[in-house]
UniProtKB/TrEMBL annotation:
Domain Calcineurin-like phosphoesterase stretches: 1-208
Pfam families: Metallophos_2
InterPro entries assigned: Ap4A_hydrolase, Calcineurin-like_PHP_lpxH, Metallo-depent_PP-like, Pesterase_MJ0912
UniProt-recorded name of the protein: Metallophosphoesterase family protein
Gene3D superfamilies, per the entry: 3.60.21.10
UniProt similarity note: Belongs to the metallophosphoesterase superfamily. YfcE family.
Native source organism of the sequence: Azohydromonas lata
Length: 247
């Protein structure tokens, strides 16, 4: 089965439309949505409706930190722009859409895979996988052979051998990588809705559990249109500028 891994959608309709079309065009048979459906972008309702439709068709989905904040409301410790985005998003969502977010689990398992937004060792604390050390901590916390998470917005792949030897590398888009089960793997597909590696193209990855390969992809989309919607909605201009810069 070819499984498309999409994370950090961030209410970006234009990016998600292109990623879904690209994934289906490359044979995706199922989807895993790794959280942060909302936040930053101007189309939270549309993105959630797409996510709900995919889940009804069997997709896996987990909660992200922006989703959790939207469910519970802005917290005093948040930055002013983050609080504004949370409260604006809450005004855009119907009760059924908020209920969908609230019901999302922190983790999902399927076969050799664990799906989680931030990390496997403390999913509810939203700690980032910043380096090999955090990746190893996550991999040692689960028997899953393939851990897929988001949160970092940067495409990355880590691995851990049975003897405890760890490695990492930045993937090249479009190049299949063998991810054989004699090692554990932690993959961060990169952000669909708000890339931050200097490349504004939307990111996602495709896991083929028969060939045991993982392919990272970048998909151009109309980030100018998405940025203009952010400004029109009255959201902080920096959210739109990030789409242009990919940072």
């Amino acid at each position: 089965m070819k499984l498309a891994l999409i994370t950090d959608l961030h209410a970006n309709r234009e990016a998600l439309e292109e990623v879904l079309a690209h994934a289906r065009g490359h044979g995706a048979q199922q989807f895993a949505l790794l959280g942060d459906f909302v936040g930053y972008g101007a189309d939270p309702g549309w993105v959630l409706d797409q996510a709900r439709a995919l889940v009804e068709q069997g997709a896996f989905a987990v909660m992200g930190n922006h989703d959790a904040a939207t469910v519970r409301g802005a917290q005093p410790t948040m930055r002013p722009t983050a609080r504004l985005a949370v409260e604006w998003t809450r005004t855009q969502l119907a009760p059924a859409q908020l209920s969908f977010l609230a019901a999302l689990p922190l983790t999902r398992e399927h076969g050799t895979c664990l799906f989680v937004h931030a990390n496997a060792h403390a999913p509810a604390e939203w700690e980032y996988v910043l380096s090999r050390a955090e990746a190893v901590q996550s991999l040692q916390a689960t028997p899953a052979r393939h851990v897929f998470c988001g949160h970092m917005h940067l495409p990355m792949l880590y691995h851990l051998s049975g003897t405890g030897k760890a490695g990492d590398f930045a993937p090249v888009p479009g190049v299949p990588i063998p991810v054989l089960p004699h090692r554990q793997w932690l993959a961060i597909p990169g952000a669909c809705g708000q890339p931050r590696d200097g490349n504004p193209a939307a990111a996602y990855a495709m896991f083929d559990d028969e060939a045991m390969t993982l392919t990272f992809h970048r998909v151009p989309y109309d980030h100018d249109a998405a940025a203009k919607k952010i400004l029109a909605a009255g959201l902080p201009p920096e959210f739109g500028q990030r789409l242009h810069d990919g940072r």
